[in-house]
## 1
Amino acid sequence: MSGGPTSPLLRAEAVVAGYVADLPIVHGVSLQVSPGEILVVLGPNGAGKSTLVKSLAGVVPKFGGRVMLGEADITAVPVHRLAAAGVGFVPQTANVFTSLTVEENLRIGGYLLRGGELAQRLDEAYARFPDLARLRRHAGHALSGGQRQMLAMGRALMTAPRLLLLDEPSAGLSPLMVSEVFKQVRQIADSGIAVLMVEQNVKAGLRIADRGLILVSGRAAHEGSAPALQSDPQVAELYLGRHAHAAAPAAKEQA
Ligand SMILES: Nc1ncnc2c1ncn2[C@@H]1O[C@H](COP(=O)(O)OP(=O)(O)OP(=O)(O)O)[C@@H](O)[C@H]1O
């Protein structure tokens, strides 16, 4: 878990976001994430978790509010500029190029880098994910679900982001692969990166997170430390109910 208190890196204030201007899905959500910390965003199906993370990643439009990364206002920074601004985003689906090799995917992630730096980041990615080093010449479609998720994270890490946004990294993975992927997420945070992760898998999510935010109908309904949320019977009953005792219903073995 993270060490002493640090000032937040990501500060989202009263974010309003959605797909159609008159029909916001996220209704004024504020949150903060510090370096070295994992904030997990939980909530029922359709609560707006993915919409929230996509709006922070610049993929879904924001209609109100402000997003700060350190001292920089990134509210209006378009998605293609966010990597250079220090934000890595791993979408839930279509997050690797399946016809390209592992190494080609990583090189694309590092497209902003110059030669020496690119080589160094590739080495770092292979050190972090030994499976990817072994499979560097294999095409994306030959990877298991878990390996693909590692590749998607490795790609996002190529530009050395200060903030990593993950949209349901456990989706479709077997419980064993979920713990492998989450172990990596924890290590990424422990290396000083701020991590915001959307999750359906409440139990596993709270186990690796420092803090949790529960979204209900596009609003922050509850926020607290992971241990406090885990042991709060009211939270479990009201918001986490059927998810608290099982993995996401849609999860299927893929590893
Ligand atoms: N591309 C889209 N265009 C229009 N509406 C969308 C789009 N994607 C999602 N929505 C709507 O936004 C609402 C919130 O969806 P979102 O995927 O953000 O919820 P979620 O909390 O991530 O749910 P889940 O856990 O099921 O993924 C839903 O009503 C959904 O139908």
## 2
Amino acid sequence: MSQQRTGPTDGPDFPDLPEATVARLPEYLRALHHLAEEGHDTVSSEGLAAAAGVNSAKLRKDLSHLGRTGTRGVGYDVTLLIDQIEQVLGLTHRRAVALVGVGNLGHALAGYAGFGSRGFRIAALFDADHGRVGEHINGLVVRHIDDLPEVVDEESISIAVIATPAHAAQNVADRLVAAGVTSVLNFAPCVLNVPEGVDVRKVDLAIELQILSFHEHRKSALTALPGRAGQDLQRADRLGAEAVGS
Ligand SMILES: NC(=O)c1ccc[n+]([C@@H]2O[C@H](COP(=O)([O-])OP(=O)(O)OC[C@H]3O[C@@H](n4cnc5c(N)ncnc54)[C@H](O)[C@@H]3O)[C@@H](O)[C@H]2O)c1
């Protein structure tokens, strides 16, 4: 992922952050909530780094972007750090999210209880299939996609999830943008074209598996190499894989 920096709204609540730091903040937040639930008031940078699965130098650098430096010998105040990361991520109120496409994946997402505790509320479900419209899922009624503008406005929805087949996703994205949605999480395996000012993130588990497949393929090729040369290449490969996350 490119090292873009956050946009023109830099200021106390919108620090100029590298995109890789933004991507790690939710990991720190998840780890911090877990530590708070376990009754920890403070955490060392090493402890938080281990809980979040990153190295501690990277964590200290990330948190220094927020103006946070831990107190030597004490570490970070867990509650204060949660507050600050939630401020930066704009999670101080639960954001309303629309989900479009209530098939296999959409059903699973609509029924997932974990969004609520992570700052989001699935506020509306849409589908184009009249057979699905009217279905009740997790306290919500599936609406027809034609109702999108009205519901987006009523529920102040700015983020939407697309879980339709790929062939329908661009049209759905166009309708979402026209209704006022400015951030899209796309599960459909396709590239979406959106106007400037609209953010799209893509989730594709098959791509993640293909990347793991590449590493499996490489590992078996390296272990087949004889002696020292094979060991050196395996070590270089491990270091390279660790560097990818930086
Ligand atoms: N990203 C991932 O890791 C991942 C994993 C599984 C599936 N997928 C993708 O997610 C999408 C959904 O998969 P699924 O198995 O749930 O499919 P599905 O066929 O079960 O569900 C798709 C739903 O979208 C609805 N739909 C179709 N066109 C629409 C439109 N124009 N407006 C609104 N709703 C519309 C259909 O009526 C259906 O209910 C697919 O694109 C699939 O490839 C991605």
## 3
Amino acid sequence: MGTFKIEGGHQLKGEIQPQGAKNEALQILCAVLLTPEVVTINNIPDIIDVNKLITLLKNLGVKVKHLGPGSYSFQADNVNLDYLKSADFKEEGRGLRGSIMIVGPLLARFGKGYIPKPGGDKIGRRRLDTHFEGFINLGAKFRYNREEYFYGVEADTLVGTDMLLDEASVTGTANIVMAAVLAQGTTTIYNAACEPYLQQLCKMLNRMGAKISGVGSNLLTIEGVDALGGTEHKMLPDMIEIGSWIGLAAMTKSELTIKNVSWDDLGQIPNVFAKLGITLERRGDDIFIPEHTNGYEIQNYIDGSILTIADAPWPGFTPDLLSIVLVVATQARGEVLVHQKMFESRLFFVDKLIDMGAKIILCDPHRATVIGHDFKSQLKATTMVSPDIRAGISLLIAALSAKGTSTIHNIEQIDRGYEHIVKRLKKIGAKIERFEGN
Ligand SMILES: CC(=O)N[C@H]1[C@@H](OP(=O)(O)OP(=O)(O)OC[C@H]2O[C@@H](n3ccc(=O)[nH]c3=O)[C@H](O)[C@@H]2O)O[C@H](CO)[C@@H](O)[C@@H]1O
Ligand SMILES: C=C(OP(=O)(O)O)C(=O)O
């Protein structure tokens, strides 16, 4: 287990370039299984989850070439389906959440797809019903081994149909789309998720020869085709990382420029941080955050009542930034109610912030009220364990703003989704060191 030691209370300054989007990368990498031709992918983030998925693809027989920083080519012209029966696969497949999305492409191209219960953050129940109901709707037979938590779908042919998803699941929609592109006839998916990750996936699939319309909406229409070909794709910047750096700038009262953010793909994100009182300036495609010398003030609603920030499927506010919103609010002027609707166990990390001196009331597992200090009282350094990726980065931001030296254990959780974080944070002046072990 790795550890960060962080000396807090220092202002940062400079430019930071966001990495390629983790959640997009996990979808796009799985899509290489849909064609025997070469797919070249750029701006792939160098993070644990993505590297695990690349290893899994290699073990499945996909030819992987590293072309340069963040660029790889993939060719799935000799896929080894026997690997899916191996003990190694049962171990590797559960190493991350994104591995679930190999099932749709494998089912569509080879008639069978298997996966052990995938990993990812322990942030509450994370069911997979939407994925498998979708495959069943396309004509697949489903089986589940309860002892081994092993899922499987099989079908000689998939046949397009109309379906209404029980929830707008991000990875579920991606999985079903990747199965439907090679099905016979037309599939419609209503209540589809439409995050930029999915829009990017659909655009890439269309470049490979798929026929998907409605991209960006919650109604996708997919005309099945016989085969897909190769293509080249570039990942968008990671919007969750961008939100994390906005929070970091505000909490440390630092002037930061976040470079090349693809502003038009950020949806509500700039707006939500602006509601917390943070000044964000659009400079071309960069976000400039000035030094917040006088702090930042949370806006109330028009009628004077307390602001609520809640998550919702896109174009709503992403749940992956609520932990960051929460930590940023601890130093704001004013109060906010943070409502994490999707996940049941994602707010428990507030205990740590309370230990550090933050004024937070955890109302129930989904809601926390934060009363900001307006920098009149600094958070105190402490020792903590990162419970999940976004709580981890939030605790890191808290530590960078706190007085004294903090220790964060279990930083692999942060490494899952943040590329070369020590090097990048040091470049803007952060005092952070990594240690292996505890
Ligand atoms: C690898 C990857 O891409 N992970 C992301 C993906 O996970 P993932 O695809 O696993 O998440 P889902 O979209 O399936 O759902 C996440 C949770 O939200 C609940 N839910 C979902 C849809 C809905 O309309 N209402 C609702 O309550 C689900 O029951 C589930 O508990 O999407 C999540 C939701 O944006 C993000 O937090 C994860 O970072
Ligand atoms: C919850 C997240 O990731 P995963 O779905 O991979 O656990 C996240 O990225 O915030």
## 4
Amino acid sequence: MTVSSAPGKVYLLGEHAVVYGEPAVLCAIDRRATVTATARDDDRIRVQARDLTIDGFSVEYGDGVVDESANIDVPHPLIEAAVGYVDGAIEQVREVVDTTGFTITIESDIPLGAGLGSSAAVVVAAIDAATREMGVELTPEEIAQRAYRVEYDVQDGQASRADTFCSAMGKAVRVEGDDCRPIEEPPELPFVVGFDGSAGDTGTLVAGVRNLKEEYEFAADTVRTIGDIVRTGERAITTEDQRELGRLMNFNHGLLSALGVSSRSLDAMVWAARDAGAFGAKLTGAGGGGCIVALDPTPDTATALQYTPGCEETFRAELDHDGVRVESE
Ligand SMILES: Nc1ncnc2c1ncn2[C@@H]1O[C@H](COP(=O)(O)OP(=O)(O)OP(=O)(O)O)[C@@H](O)[C@H]1O
Ligand SMILES: C[C@@](O)(CCO)CC(=O)[O-]
Ligand SMILES: [Mg+2]
């Protein structure tokens, strides 16, 4: 039995634009997906993902199809879409090791589809746990590369390397096209997360931005401007200027909103954070619903979010210096 875990992340700046080669800066946070891989005597692959629920059903399946014993009463295409990332991870493992069967159990404290990189963390941890269980040790960079292939396929050929690289490496990272690098001395930023309890589908949201960009030159300009914000933000990271970073996050949120990936509840949480005195606030990840991230060293933003209609949960997130790691072998 091998247990591996990998962190989720928040985007300081640059989501969506990073898909088109602009830079992005993101930070691993102290919320993790944990995957247990256990070799089996038969050649079956069994996945238990208790957090993955569809209309209240927990999904359990074997050999890529819904397991009879799970007794799930929802159409198979829905399940197939939901298990796409896990299936992709298993495919990657099969490219590396000659597997017989194994059982994969996924537990995660990263909300699904909420912009905190649950997909990347699950895929990274699953590839690590299953390959180790079969006696192969991949480097974090190799795991990031394979996990990226999975995100690329599930998101219909439109994905950046950002989420998977950040989850595999931990700390803060800068990604621009194929150029992925850790930020050596990342500042400890006072992240406050607000979660509206809902989810957005990354593939669909990415496709929406792509269509807008193809239709309007000013949407393409908006994407390039997000790149300019990130380049400016890098100086603020080096000088640890949190006020300046906050202003740039606000600007970034405005442009993401213009690209159609914010929502009423995300905007409400962003404004509640700003009104409470946060240095800045923006949605994180694909958007459409899910989480915002604000910078506030005081308790005021968290308190304001607790009273914001539409906000279901708020918590402080700490930078996680560890990327993918083995918990037990
Ligand atoms: N605990 C889990 N168990 C099984 N599958 C999971 C789990 N968490 C996430 N996933 C997979 O990841 C999908 C959500 O990924 P998606 O990219 O849409 O959102 P996200 O990664 O949470 O947010 P973002 O990409 O915006 O950071 C789920 O539908 C499921 O396929
Ligand atoms: C929206 C996006 O930029 C981030 C999702 O967390 C998609 C990607 O980078 O693949
Ligand atoms: Mg994702």
